[in-house]
Design brief:
The protein is an alpha+beta fold. The protein is built from two helices and eleven strands; from the N terminus they run βαβαβββββββββ. The longest helix is centred in the first third of the chain and has 18 residues.
Amino acid sequence: MKHSLIHIQPILVSMTEEKYKMDAKTLKFINELEFSSHVDGEGAKSVNSYILECRELLGLKKFIEKHIDYYAHELLKVSRKHQFYITQSWVNFNRKGETHHAHHHSNSLISGVFYVAGDDCPINFSNAGYHIFGRGFDVEIAESNLYNAKGWRIPNENFKLILFPSHVTHFVESNMHDTPRISLSMNTFIKGSIGIKDSLTEVIFK
């Protein structure tokens, strides 16, 4: 049977086709960063949580900003009256056996992950409380697809960037490889105002 399928309010996760050309000097800078301690099987984070402000990463910052602009204005079609900028940014370091717990990013609109190094260790996007017929109706699924899945696994590809809405819960599985999984994460916010003045929902960020 043929049906016209209408997607209602899908969540857009985007991965760049383009890879950032990271040279050996930049890789060395990232590998020599100071990191926090590894605790309870979790990966470590760079002590510097504004890492994209470092002059050594200026080229990478411009690459990420270009794709944030495209994601927001060309894919999501957000008005260009709203200009997005990177707030905090940090590097994650997961050794063999280490994970990253399920979480979302508060005080941010678009978040991203740029993959620096590592073998297969996907990022997982989760909506554990989702039920296709609403809460209280749990049916067996014969085949997972866009309409019934409670989660998605997206492979990490070195030197590519993933962007997604900051409120989406995500986590990283245990790194099963000897090679550390290294990624750079970032949050964003907007300049100017949001809301509608006449509806009394306007907020102006100064």
